Amino acid sequence: MSAVSAEAVTGGVRTGPEAEPRPRGGGEAAPLAPRARLLPSLAAVYRAQLSRARVARIPLLFVATFQSVGIMILMRGVVDGGDEARAVVAGSSVLVVAFVALNLLAQYFGQLRAGGGLDHYATLPVPPAAVVLGAAAAYASFTVPGTAVTAVAGSVLFKLPLTHLWVLVAVIPLSGAALAGLGAALGLLAPRQELATLCGQLGMSAALLLGVLPAAHLPAVLGLARDLLPSTYGVEALARCFDARPDWLAVAADLGVCAAVGVVSLAAATWAYRRAAVR
Amino acid sequence: MAERGSGGEVAGDAVCTVRGLVKTYPAARRRRGAEGAPAVRASDGVDLDVRRGEIFGLLGPNGAGKSTLVRQLTGLLRPDGGSVELLGHDLVRHPERAARLIGYLGQESSALDELTVALAAETTGRLRGLDLRTARAERDAVLDELGLAPIAGRPLKKLSGGQRRLACFAAALVGERPMLVLDEPTTGMDPVARRAVWAAVDRRRAEHGTTVLLVTHNVIEAETVLDRVAVLERGRIIACDTPAGLKALVADEVRVELVWRDAPPLDVPEVAALRAGATEAGRRWTLRLGPAEARAAVAAVTGGPAFSALDDFTLATPSLEDVYLALGGRAEGLVKG
């Protein structure tokens, strides 16, 4: 037995052995250790997730980029400049975001939940939002190099102006937030790990078909599906920027939709996390 | 240790009090190709008192309800009924407080697998509410203490099972808590790592009065490190005392193990008579006998025709495994050594 009182122990104040043991009477409760605050714990989760990239993610990031560049090379034989070329380049660029943020994050959370890995976070005094946002932000960050490479390569390939590509600075985080939130929510809500993987794959396939194929050629039903998919708005925003004088208001409106979907889906993912962590 | 056996001693010093805890897993639906499972009462009216500064063990085979009980104490699982009070806090009403009172080492490491040992410890400390400087200082101290410094830069995934377990244990220690809940912490560890774990636990106990709740199915470990142990069987606590106190329950018995070279010589009448009381596992028979009977049994198998069929035999004083069997438990899931 130790001669250190509970207060000294939990308060982190180390009292010497001369401190008297204080008998615990009735209602007196030991002080609680502090909660982890949102931003520092978000930063810690983000940093930890980012470091995973080195171990586990780099090959997949290459796959994501090659897939998009490959699609553009294929489509070069089909489309010849104009609106269609813009759609192909913008769609392929945002596809990288969908691959990593939607598909891989859904898989990651599905796997973590199935394997009991969420217990680790659930037994730490960390706000659920920090875990979800930290992971989502890290996965959105993984998409940066691939998306930028795809957009630049596509612009060169289809002879589109590079002038306004700086818009990627807004497109990546906002479509990243929307798609990562969706991916996290799917991964945490799916009753089984395989379903999480399946949903992630389907979401990515939808982003591929509905994003890359020019909208004018789609049947009405698919056009509606295209409007419902959040990646569409990222694609549209980026496509508009290949104009000589982009309609900035429309770009802002598209990105606003991404941001709104991001807020809603990340909130849903946080709720799903809370539900998955304590059964 | 034996003098700490009586159940009612210093009840006021209990840091963790569990009363009437009940948790039932609902019946699983039938799926194609698989039978549905019936509802399982994984905690069936559990009462527990853990005292300040002790290493309290939960012993039982897989499926006895150890992990279910621990998950309810750590706020991971909501009990159907009953109360859990830890250091004056009602954890059934406020499960989120468990994370601020308990350092938990679960059985899974998948959340940390792709991090390096150092980052796993540091991140866990940060998420326990430490600032960056403190988290790093504690990380370095714990990694040194456990001898993990040389592999601090390697991802957990690339380590052996025992090293990975030790790294997770390190993460559980960063950010001090008055209570540690360790779910089979030494699984897969070599003796050096095990010693490091118990030394680290003892140090925290001596310096800070840390209380430890340990889940184990290893009877040898239970006998050597625990102050008191609760024996679980099908969601119930069937006994709770010091290891020595529990072993006193079966002190008048001797365990006799016989290993036959081939088939047991059942044509020898003494051997045929022993078979009735033996637990058979392949060529090994385990018998629990009174001292006089044990002597007679050994005399019978070591003399005469039975001896040529005998490969090995041992006589031993009872272990917690024998206690467990004497109390009516199923011992198949317990590990020796």
UniProtKB/TrEMBL annotation, chain A:
Keyword field contains Membrane: yes
Bilayer disposition of the protein: Multi-pass membrane protein
Segments for region (Disordered): 1-31
Bilayer-spanning residue ranges: 55-75, 87-109, 130-153, 165-190, 202-225, 248-273
Main location: membrane
Pfam families: ABC2_membrane
Subcellular location: Membrane
InterPro entries reported for this sequence: ABC2_TM, Nod_factor_ABC_transporter
Keywords: Membrane, Transmembrane, Transmembrane helix
ABC-2 type transporter transmembrane domain: residues covered: 54-239
Protein name: Transporter
Protein source organism: Streptomyces varsoviensis
